[in-house]
Specification:
Length: 164
């Protein structure tokens, strides 16, 4: 009777341990183990002309063997007109992943007015620096930056940067 009871207790403990084990699959496990995580820093200058057309000039890129910390604020579902979409593309120009970048030419400035009350003011800039820090997917060959042109999320490609 004692052996039966001890086997039952041990079986119950193992059942509880394995039943409560996490079933999460890590993203890193799905990547090939020989592929190190790559982080890329891209620097551009964005400007708009008198007609409101945006232009981007590439400055430089730096690639590092690192991993980006989770930053969920950067990954928004939908952008507004004037925002940018940064897309990672594979060799066939198929989108792998994308992020929304708030319009870098539209800044909100907070200041104290004459009554010592904080106010905010929207300032539209003619040009501004644009710096991106991205975790690169192992199949990414290009980075495309698009400008959202209407409320249907249609966009116009501003620049495509090839990764070597």
């Amino acid at each position: 009777m004692y052996k039966l009871l001890s086997k039952l207790v041990i079986s119950s403990v193992f059942l509880v341990i394995f039943a409560c084990a996490s079933k999460k699959v890590k993203i890193e496990d799905s990547l090939p183990q020989d592929t190190p995580s790559k982080l890329i820093f891209l620097n551009y200058t964005i400007s708009k002309d008198d007609h409101g057309n945006k232009n981007i000039q590439f400055i430089n890129k730096i690639v590092a063997d690192r991993k980006l910390k989770n930053n969920t604020n950067q990954y928004l579902n939908k952008g507004s007109i004037g925002d940018l979409i940064c897309r990672q593309l594979d060799k066939d120009s198929t989108e792998i992943t994308s992020i929304i970048i708030k319009n870098p030419l539209s800044k909100h400035i907070e200041f104290l007015n004459d009554s010592l009350i904080f106010e905010t003011k929207k300032v539209d800039l003619k040009s501004a620096p644009l710096s991106l820090r991205l975790q690169i997917h192992h199949n990414t060959k290009f980075i495309a930056i698009n400008h959202i042109i209407d409320s249907l999320q249609n966009s116009k490609t501003l620049i495509i940067t090839k990764l070597d």
